[in-house]
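Late entry, evening session. Most of the bench is empty. Finally got around to the prediction I had been postponing all week. Sequence below, unchanged from the version circulated by S.P.
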Amino acid sequence: MPIIVPKDIPATKILQDENIFVMNEKRALKQDIRPLEIAILNLMPTKIVTETQFMRLLSNSPLQINITLLSTESYVGKNTPIEHLQKFYKPFSAVKNKKFDGMIITGAPVEDIEFTDVKYWDELKEIFEYAKTNVTSTIFICWGAQAGLYYYYGIEKHKLDKKLFGIYKHKKLVKYDRLLKGTDDRFYMPHSRHTTVYEQDIKNCKDLVLLASSKEAGAGIIRSKDNKFIFITGHAEYDRDTLEKEYKRDLERGLPIDPPENYYVNGKSGEIKMCWASTANLIYMNWLNHYVYQLTPYEIDEINKK
């Protein structure tokens, strides 16, 4: 089944060039089926790249999915053309009376700022509270995961000595958890962050389950026991060249940065070892199937009425 995207959004041509079935909204309306309603709160500065990455992953499901792109009103970034935001994104205030089968909250480059000092923190708290009762299941990514863990469970983030940057091996800790169904016992995932959460804090929380961990990167994937929230501290959605672009950007800015670990075949540059794409596809397919489709009611307004 296809992913439903707005007409003319840049992701359409990219996905079609990759032989991914994309359907426009007009054609979707003619089909007698209720698509899953998935919201993506995109906090990343490179919004066009990020929205395409998540649309690519969501398109691999046999389910029909309708995407709503959200951006913050209290802060508008400068890296995405305002025309793109106005045409393809909605503010949270425009959808807060709706319900969604699933939501994805991305990372953001604000790790060095205290949560309460982030310009859109109050707005984000409102969205976090909304997700508790109006969304069947929500995935939080990188800084978004740290923010969600802090808001819901009081788990603090901690500054790393240097940027965690590269591809890291993770061990699956819960053998038969549905989110990791089909993944190997050890799998790889990109990370790019300056802060972390402590594994012991996750283990000490009676409402959370640590699903995957890395010797170098720490807690990798966490799930709430009620299946409402999934926290991924890395970036399974990243493209092949995303870390390379970040590396070159930091070098140009004169920032202290080492080549991404376990990324290049020769260690420093050149050919990239793409070793996380299959895991990313499995995680998002499993999320859509087991944590969204199998749990969400057919009548979307019935979410949280049980």
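Two things to note before I forget:
The radius of gyration is 18 Å.
Residues 28-32 have pLDDT under 50 and may be disordered.
Will write this up properly tomorrow.
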